[in-house]
Amino acid sequence: MTEPAKIRIVVADDDQDVLDLVVFKLTQAGYDAVPVGDGVAALAAIEAELPRLAILDVMMPGLSGMDVLRTVRANEATKNLDVILLTARARDADVDTGFASGADDYVIKPFSPRELMHRVNAVLARGNR
Amino acid sequence: MNVGSTFLSVGVAIGLAIASSIVVIAIAKVRRVRVGVSARAMLAPFRLGLVAMASGEDEGGQAKIALCALPAPIWVRVRPSVVAFLPKVRGLPADDLTELMRAHGEIDEARRMLSSRSAVRRARAAYLLGLMRDADSVVLLLPLLNEPVADVRMVATRALGTIGDPSAASAILRALRTQHGHIGLPAWVAAEALLAMGSGIEPALQIGLASEDPAVRHVCAVVAGHGTYLLAAPQLRILLATDGDGDVRVSAAVALGRLGGADDAATLARHAEASESTVLRRTCATALGDLGHREGTQALTELLGDGDRRLAELAADSLVRIGSEGIARLEEAAATPLQGPSARAARGALELAGMRGQLAASDSGSS
Q1: DSSP B21-88
Q2: What value does the CA radius of gyration of chain B take, rounded to a whole number of Å?
Q3: Which residues of B74-112 are buried (b: 16+ CB within 10 A; e: fewer)?
Q4: Do B54 and A113 touch (CB under 8 A)?
């Protein structure tokens, strides 16, 4: 019997510590996590890997997480991708902008890895748009 | 001839100085790279355990036990990574990382460093104690609020905010005052720390709103509005009406817009009248929109024709935010045949609201 395909999640963060711990947490939970270190690589990984979910840091060199999100939403092939923004930008206006740009959820750093997993599971459970 | 040989000697000396500088820089770079490689190599066997701890996946606590048992020379290399993880996570992983730091004597060392002669060490120690949310260190951090070095005062304030013990609120408010020739804490640093402390600061806030120092009243009003401390509302009304400091009146108006009730629409409308300062009038117009009660509709409609165009725009935007009744007033103003300033402000606000999708939301909300 073949093992069911793991759900693929692209994780983009220029902070190696955050990247390592989110990827570790997702892998332990049985997801196929694809780590990338900047916005340009995130966009390339999303287009190449067609994941179910992307977890994007907002402040990254090159393309920001918000730029990646807007590009993803504007692209027919990726517009239904679930996206969680993971960021230190905690002001109400930042959160509003994140959701207005099409994020499915918004997690503020410092974050609880456990809570992030609950949010990942909840976003995926809501299913494709 | 002599002049020529002097030039030659100077040239050679400059050349040698440049060459030796290049050699020194190159050696320093190579050394730094080697130290980095060696630190990474030293950390490599422990990185996975550290990531497991930081992600809350250290089942059975095996990684924590191993990291707590590291000998001092290796801990020195691992420590920066632990400190780097601390501000990035919260919950159980943050507690585990703090326990690891405690096991290696870092809390005791940081407490000792609070009285170091070096301001950098004092600031670093305060920062670490904040990161580790060490509630027992609050009493040791409080004296740093009266420090001669401004940066240390700010770091200590932030640390107290991160620890979140509301008993430090009064001391932070006192540190806003300029004392012994030291300029007080910046208002925003104090406000952020106070907001991080939660509802327990309410008694200190009420005392601060009655302070004789306008800087303290200003910060307390800002915090009351952001944190929606409802018990502060009566004092905020008094500050808005009577305070001698313009900044305090403005921050009181903002706060009332956030936490006030329907009755406060009349108060805010009164302070948007022409006899008040431009900044207070504009703030009150915005606050009426934040308040969102229909009682503000009439006053805002009258402001649409004000000579201050920015005030008229803010009033129009607030009418949109009040909802269907406010939008109806804007539509009436936009439809007037004269097309004066009121109509222009109303049309602009309606166009923006249409672009933001607020008109559709208001329609569906009112149906």
Answers
A1: HHHHHHHHHHHHHHHHHHHHHHHHHHHHHHHHHHTT--GGGHHHHHHHT--HHHHHHHHHHHHHHGGG
A2: 30
A3: ebebbbebbbebbbbbbeebbebbbebbebbebbeebbe
A4: yes
Query: Which residues is A106 bridged to in the sheet?
Result: A85
Degrees, nearest 5: CA angle B43-B44-B49: 90
Domains located in chain A, CATH noted: 8-125 (3.40.50.2300)
Separation in Å, CA of A71 to nearest CA in chain B:
20
A32 touches chain B (CB under 8 A): no
Strand order in the sheet with A32-36: A32-36, A8-12, A53-57, A82-87, A105-108
Distance from CA of B54 to the nearest CA of A (A): 7
Percent of chain A with pLDDT over 70: 95
For B263-273, what is the mean pLDDT?
Answer: 95
The per-residue pLDDT for range A51-67, each reduced to its tens digit, is 999 999 999 988 999 99
Q: Which residues of A touch B164 (CB under 8 A)?
A: none
10 Å Cβ neighbour count for B42?
14
**Among B77, B74, B49, B51, residue whose Cα is nearest residue B63:** B49
ipTM of the complex: 0.89
Say yes or no to pLDDT of B166 above 70. Answer: yes
Which residue has 């701890």 as its token pair?
B53
Report DSSP state, residue B89.
B
B196 to chain A nearest CA, in Å?
Answer: 13
CA Rg value for chain A: 13
Digit-coded pLDDT (tens) for B289-315? 999 999 999 999 999 988 899 999 999
Q: Is the pLDDT of residue B5 over 90?
A: no
> How far apart are alpha carbons B32 and B37 in whole angstroms?
9
Instruction: Name chain B contacts of A18, Cβ cutoff 8 Å.
Output: 88
Match 């932070």 to its residue by tokens.
B172
Of A24, A28, A110, nearest to B89 by CB-CB distance is: A110
Question: Which tokens go with B323?
Answer: 């909802």
Please classify residue A104 by burial: count the beta carbons closer than 10 Å to its beta carbon, then call 0-12 exposed, 13-18 middle and 19+ buried.
Answer: buried
